[in-house]
Amino acid sequence: MKKLLTLLVLGLTLSLGAHAADPAADCAAKSAEKKLAGAAKKSFEKKCVADAGGGASPACEKSAADKKLAGAAKTAHIKKCMADASPAAAAKPAEAAKPASAAKK
Asked: What pTM did the predictor assign?
């Protein structure tokens, strides 16, 4: 009985942890609860995901601060920094491996 209770608690904990790890799904549920639609729903979910931790990494924030960027320049820098740090960016080495002479043709 003790093992069954332990497994039940473990399963519940893992399922709650998985739900908390997906802010987009949580925000979608909140927007449905508020009965939002169209542009209001999209705007609410975008802000909700950003507030939930979908923001920039501390390294990118520090880089922008070191360069004393503000406004649109800061936003663009952080966006590029986050894209460069993502695993998808590492999957594009073929374009970077092109020789300089091929680019001049």
From this structure: 0.36
